[in-house]
Design a protein that fits this description.
With 155 residues, this protein is of the alpha+beta class. The protein is built from four helices and nine strands; from the N terminus they run βαβαβββββαββα.
């Protein structure tokens, strides 16, 4: 899952709320002012999600702030944007998202070879007890690291 580009935005809440089982890299159909705002890191992924409709993948609720030097042709900040995926990937996603509990969640936006890409994750929603268990494991791992570090320093 190594992204070889410049990371623009990351949806940290997605990994907290979903078990991510598979990831897909997709391009986005953007206007000129949108890509300029993305390069300025003016993106909010908080409530965004992806959906497959009429054989095409779409990204909803991704907030890209209007470009400051834009004119009257500036973009709508939360418009629905088309995702560029291979036909085989889209048909696979249609089958997987129709299963109960699966959804498409954008994980990262980055610039790769001068092109904006989004990393989409196929996720299944976590229950409250799953989230608590993850937090316990994270805290335990942090304590182990801290103890190991203190031991190395000879404290």
């Amino acid at each position: 899952m190594a992204t070889e580009g410049k990371l623009i935005a990351q949806n940290k809440k997605a990994r907290h709320d979903f078990h991510i089982e598979e990831t897909y890299e997709a391009g986005m159909v953007l206007t000129g002012t949108e890509i300029k705002s993305i390069r300025n890191r003016r993106v909010n992924m908080k409530d965004s999600f992806a959906r497959v409709a009429q054989g095409e993948a779409w990204l909803h609720n991704l907030h890209i702030s209007p470009y400051e030097q834009g004119n009257r042709y500036n973009h709508d900040p939360v418009r629905t944007r088309k995702l560029l995926l291979h036909r085989k990937q889209i048909s696979q996603l249609i089958g997987l998202t129709q299963q109960k509990g699966y959804t498409l969640v954008p994980l990262k936006i980055y610039i790769k070879n001068g092109v904006a890409k989004v990393l989409i994750g196929l996720g299944k929603g976590k229950k409250k007890y799953d989230k608590r268990e993850d937090l316990k494991q994270k805290d335990a791992k942090r304590e182990i690291q801290r103890a190991f570090k203190d031991n190395q320093l000879g404290r």
